[in-house]
Amino acid sequence: MMTDSSDVRNxxxxxxxxxxxxxxxxxxILKLMTVALLSDGHILLEGVPxxxxxxxxxAFSQSLSFSFKRIQFTPDMLPSDVMGTFVFNAKxxxxxxxxxxxxxxxxxxxxxxxATPKTQSSLLEAMQERxxxxxxxxxxxxxxxxxxxxxxxxxxxxxxxLPESQLDRFMFRLMIDYPSHEEGVRILEYALKGxxxxxxxxxxxxxxxxxxxxxIRTSVHxxxxxxxxxxxxxxxxRNEDAKIALGGSPKASVHLLNASRxxxxxxxxxxxxxxxxxxxxxxxxxxxxxxxxxxxSEVGALESPFQYKVLNQLISDLVSTIEVPR
Length: 326
Known about the structure:
Blueprint: H1 5-22, H2 27-38, E1 43-46, H3 53-62, E2 64-65, E3 68-72, H4 79-83, E4 84-89, E5 94-99, E6 106-110, H5 117-120, H6 124-129, E7 131-134, E8 137-140, E9 146-151, H7 164-167, E10 172-175, H8 181-193, E11 204-205, H9 206-219, H10 224-238, E12 244-246, H11 250-266, H12 274-285, E13 290-291, H13 293-299, H14 304-320
Parallel strand pairs: 1-9, 1-10, 2-11, 3-6, 6-9
Antiparallel strand pairs: 4-5, 7-8, 12-13
């Protein structure tokens, strides 16, 4: 049983040690993955081919001692391929429910934007309500439940853009960038040795994660003025009429608060500070903001990777205009 924030921080450091066996750098990505896991969030990993999106998701999942399923999304996939379906049992002469791969603690939804909107929408209920409904039959998903989805931001042929309602279910959208020069050299050194990818030890049990979530939910202090601060940041995205067509939703403010509580504990504190909120504002808001077409044309951010940079600056500027609580 976890007793204080130091236990959760120790869990995070163990995850970090295992993750670094497989992934060069990207410690910030791991931190945000851990934050999402401990605050009931889902993550959309976005990046060009070859930057190890799938490997990161698998390495993170394999360090957790609970069930994991990978779903490779394709255009011909049906909702029943994700959720499950009823099959006829000849012995009992009854229809029984056969569970789909969605019934796991961690789901890797690989190349999610290759599935049709109908299949993508099959994840909505599971991500929001932690349950699956098929033909009037509803079954709860086991906690914890987390979706790690990947998509390629530049390949458009054979893909279907995620609708706003789907994007809003994700706590974070994380852009996986190219490695630095030093990281690139280390990757080649590993390749030169010809060694296999090392096994990742399962070091975080389901109960440990559930205990950590409960500790974060009940033991992290939040000053009332920090609640005001969160709401003001989200409201600022809805008041930038010249640049933003769609701002952050109320769900964004809930995600920002919950993620900030988890981040505070990972940093060894049982209270939130404004820097926690500021650090998480961009990964929480970047996929919820829809820029106006004329602004996109004006700044030349027609493609997703360039929009990501424009959004980074825009959100940073908006956050800087909000008075920080003392």
